[in-house]
Structures are given as C-alpha cells and as structure tokens.
Fold this sequence. Notes:
Layout: H1 2-28, E1 33-49, E2 52-67, H2 85-111, E3 116-125, H3 130-133, E4 142-146, E5 149-150, H4 155-164, E6 168-175, E7 178-186, E8 190-194, E9 197-201, E10 204-210, H5 213-240, H6 251-263, H7 268-290, H8 298-315, H9 321-352
Antiparallel strand pairs: 1-2, 3-10, 4-5, 4-6, 6-7, 8-9
Amino acid sequence: MVYILFSILFFGFLIAIHEFGHFITAKLSGVRVNEFSIGMGPRLWGHKHGETEYSLRLFPVGGYCAMEGEDGDSDDPRSFSKASFGKKVLILVAGSGMNFLAGLLILVLLFSGAKAFVSTTLDSFQEGCPAAEEGYLLPGDELIKIDGKRVFTNNDVALLLGRSGADAVDLVVERNGEKITLNDVPMALRDYETEQGVRRMYGINFKVRESNLVQNLGLALRSSASFTRSVWYGVLDLVSGAVGLKDMAGPIGVVGVMTEAGKQAPSVGAGLINLLYFGSFIAINLAVMNLLPIPALDGGRLFFLVLNGGMMLLFRRRIPDRYEGYVHMIGLILLLGLMVIVGASDIYKLIGT
C-alpha cells in the first residue's frame, strides 16, 4: 500500500511542479494568471488571492495554469497574447523544464552517496566471446559509441545492442587515450557458462569503478541524457508501429509498474529508492513528451508560436486565434480519448494478472 500511495503522490508532485513552472514564469514575465489548478474535473477546493484563483480538483491526472489570452486574443495588456515572443517561449517550456530538473535532481540525490558504479570500460570476457577471440576488443577498452549512438551509461550498452537487431555492430572505443573505430564487431546474444549458471548475454564484463561526488554528478547528467534518448526511441517506435496501444501505459499502469518495482526490493527503503529511480525516468519522460508538437500540449503551442512568427516575417499575417483554438480543442479531445482507452487497458491488465 505504501508504494501505491507514494506513486500517486509522486504523480501529483510532477503535475504540481509542471504547472508551477508555467505559473511562476508567467508571474515573473508580468502575464496575468486567472487560475492555477492541480488536478482536473470538479473543484474540491478553491481560494482567490489577488488576481489568481487557486484550485484543487478531483482527478489527479493533470492540471493547468490558465493565463489571460492564452486561447485567444485579449485586450488586457498583461495577457499572454500580448507578451513578447521570448516570454511566450519561456512560459511554455518552463513546465517541462521543471519536470526535467526534478528528474535530474532525483538522480543527483540517488547517486550522491554512491561509492562505486559499473562503468563502460571492458574488464573481461566470457570464454568463447567472439568479439575478444577475434581480436576486436581488449580489456580496458571504453565503449564510446555503438552503431554511431553515444554510450552515456552502462545501461545504454544492452539498450543499443538490442535495438541494433544485428549480430555485428560498429563500435567506437577509447584505447590507451585514442579513439578507435571497429567495424562489424560480432556482438550477438548467446548462452555463456557463468558462476551463476548458464546466462544469455553478450559475453562482455565491465569494470566497477570507485566513485566520488564529482563523478556521481556526471553520472546523473549522463543518466538524464540516456533517459531523454530512451523516451525519444519510445516515440519513434510508436510512430513506426514497432509498439502499439497495448504496449502503452497511462497513470494507472505506471503506478502499477512503480508498485511492482517497490515490491521486488528487499526492504521498504530499497523499494522507495527503486521508485525514485523509476520516478526520475517518468519526470524526464513527461518533460520530453510535453514538448512534442502535439496539439493541446505545450509543444503544440510552441509549434504554432514559431509558425506564426515565420508567417509574420514572410507574409505579415498570422493564423487566426480561433483556428488555432480549434486545433488545440480537437487535440485535447483526442488526448482525453486516448487517456480513456489506455486507462481501460491498464485496468484490464491489472484485472487479468
């Protein structure tokens, strides 16, 4: 139960700081904020302070910072529509910026006390590993790129090798201070005899390095970059059809996954650490997804902002506000419909397990 409660509160926290990012940036930019709400649906609590109504609503699946003139023109000189291009961009990206910062700070917190970490430097090879036996790789090589993709952390190795889908890959390694390109390195999953029994692996083992505060900070930054790329891969897989709706998870499904991650830990403390690590990925996921050029999301509003800026420069005219509003309204309806479908799928999966 503690893991479910933690996961729900964590979602609420991510929503709150996202909307707070919009709110505080709008306030600092002199833009009028009519309502700042956490949650969607019927209002449970509200209080007006100054010009802004502060609300808490029933469903903890979203929130909003309602700015004057956000969805149309307004005569108010402090409206969003009257703000400069730069201020509009800052306000729109501030929500995702807060989510990304939250994910990064969680990683910094988790890694700050680490005494060692698994590096991307090769230590040894399983007996029969073709990459070593054929002279491609040597102990001490540091993996820099796999098929042209940067290796940020040790977790990226399995991810990038798995996505390659090939039995041989191109590698860039650092050997004795020099970067070396290795083409068609045999790197396929196969069964190897280990002390723990037969394991399916790539046959390479990595050095565990002692760590300090500076290295831990660097690891947090590299992990956030790795998370960002993983989210992008997920989007590409969805667009390409490599994954479908059945593979998607909404808030209910994510809470279920987070709860399961907590339960698998040997103690409550370790479980909460697992949840925080997974939560940092969710925070960065929300940051990236919200900036995609999808109507009704911040990225969709940014897209129209840039599009209108270009049209003003070229044609001295912009898309009428009502048409942009229609696009965002349709996008919101479609997103809500998708949330209902994914939510129903999440419930079906929970009932079926």
